[in-house]
Description:
The chain is α/β, with parallel strands linked by helices. The chain has helices at 51-61, 81-84, 86-96, 114-123, 137-143, 150-162, 182-195, 213-224, 228-236, 247-261, 267-275; strands spanning 2-4, 15-16, 19-20, 46-48, 67-70, 100-105, 126-132, 167-171, 199-201, 206-208, 241-243.
Amino acid sequence: MHFVNAKGILSAQSGMNVYRGCTHGCIYCDSRSVCYGFTHDFEDVEVKQNAPELLEKALRSRRRKCMIGTGAMCDPYMHCEETLQITRKCLELIERYEFGAAVQTKSDRILRDLDLLKRINEKTKCVVQMTLTTYDEDLCRVLEPNVCTTRRRAEVMDILRDNGIPVIVWLSPVLPFLNDTRENIQGILEYCVRAKVYGIICFGMGMTLREGNREYFYGALDRYFPGLWQKYHRKYGYSYELRSDRQEELMELFRGICEKHGIVHDVKACFEYLHEFPEKYEQLQFFV
C-alpha cells in the first residue's frame, strides 16, 4: 500500500475511485489489464489520501445534485478500508451535501456503513451494486479468494432489503467451463429473488480478457485447474470476448426468472436507474 495526492477525484460521469489496485485476488479481474496504465503492482494498493478533500471541493462547486458512483474500477471496501475509512469519509460528504450514492462492491464490509447508506437513502437515493459470480461456495473461494463468498453477499443483500436500500446485482463474469451451468445461474438468481433486488446487470454468459488480465487469469487456471487454460486458448485464442457455448440456454433461463419476479434486467434500464437523481425521491418500500 502506498499513498498519493490525487489531482482530481470525480470523473465526467461523477464516478470516483479512492483506491487503485485491489487485494481481493479475483482471478478474472479486468482491472489488471494493461490498458488501465498501472505503474505499480496491482496488490500494492494506491491510496488517494486527499480524496475526501477533493470530493468536498467538487460537491460544493456543483450546481446540480447527482448520483456519485464508486467501485467501478477498484472495490471501495477492500481490506485497507477497515483502518483508512476513506470510503466512509466520502460517503459522509455525500450525505452532508445531499447527493446520491451508487456503491459497487463484493465485500460485506459495506455493512459497517449501513447507517450512512440509510441516511443518504432517506434524503435522496442510495443504491448498492453487488457482484455475484459463483453459487458454489468452494469454487467461489478459488475464483475470489480474499473476499466474502457469495452466500455472505446474499446475506448482505437481505440486510439491505430489510433497510429499504435498493440493490442491483452484477451477474458477471460467467467463466466458460467453470460456472456456466444452469445450477450456478439458478442459484444466484434465487438469492436475487429472495433479496428482492431492483435489477440485474448481465452482459451475457461469458467473460472478457485483455492483455495483462489474460496472462494472470491463465496463470491462475494453471494453478487450480491444470490443463484448462490450454482449452481456453484452443477455443478462444486471443479474443476479447469469450462466450459460453451455453449462452442461449442460460440467457433464456436468466430472462425467464427475472420476468417472472419483476426484476429489471435490461442493461440500459439498470444504468439509467443508477444515474437517475430524483428531484423528489420516495424511498422504495420492501416487504418481506
